[in-house]
Specification:
This protein is mainly beta and about 220 residues long. It has two helices and 14 strands. The longest helix has 7 residues.
Length: about 220
């Protein structure tokens, strides 16, 4: 939402820690969620549900590429966000995970949708459940996020705090989240997630209270 809401990865930030696979692997995923929230801000002006999905290819060397899409409705685009990304991730012998990559956000469905397109470069590190990601945009400002996740026997807990400089000119805001996730029956490949999102008052001033206020998001997903 360049300069309006994208200000909009792949969490998803798509810049999640990606460890090298034991062998080359192609996976797919699909998610139905009550709201598409990106860095604390809804990507639908009416806060409506979103259908999302993507494909990933990970090589044993640690290199990966992928594509991910979701319906959106903001700033002149009323149909689709499509993200293309690639990078390299590894886990060192001391347990530290590293991830470096680039992601291209593109928008489709409106006359001026392409004006919202932008690119981000990201770097991340993780250790013992803690994670840190730093992103730099080609037209927007930088962003960082600190996270922690813990896996219990049947569910996982995750919390995150981040700051996003929307314009690169001190128009920044804070966001935070806390969630619990698991799978149906404990062993099913159909997963569920319940997350709480919040933002600082700066986000409400930038985007409006309707899409930047606190919210709870419910999601159901499946991987193939």
């Amino acid at each position: 939402m360049k300069n309006s809401l994208k200000i909009s990865s792949v969490s998803l930030l798509v810049a999640a820690m990606v460890a090298p696979a034991a062998h080359a692997e192609i996976t797919a995923n699909v998610t139905l969620t009550t709201d598409y929230v990106w860095r604390g801000v809804s990507q639908n002006t009416d806060e409506s549900p979103a259908l999302q999905g993507g494909f990933d290819y990970a090589d044993e060397s640690g290199f990966y590429i992928g594509a991910w899409g979701s319906n959106v409705n903001f700033g002149g685009t009323e149909s689709l966000e499509l993200d293309i990304y690639g990078g390299w991730g590894t886990e060192l012998s001391n347990g530290v995970g590293l991830d470096f990559g680039v992601i291209r956000y593109s928008y489709h469905g409106g006359a001026d949708s392409s004006d919202l397109d932008f690119t981000e470069f990201y770097a991340g590190a993780s250790y013992a459940g803690f994670g840190f990601t730093y992103s730099v945009g080609d037209e927007l400002g930088d962003q960082y996020e600190i996270s922690y996740g813990y896996d219990f026997e049947t569910v996982s807990l995750a919390v995150a705090y981040g700051n996003y400089d929307v314009s690169g000119d001190s128009d920044d805001y804070d966001y935070y989240s806390a969630g619990i996730s698991g799978s149906f029956g404990g062993k099913s490949d159909i997963g569920w997630d319940v997350s709480y999102w919040g933002t600082s008052s700066d986000a409400e001033e930038l985007f409006g209270n309707d899409i930047a206020d606190d919210r709870i998001v419910l999601s159901i997903s499946k991987e193939f």
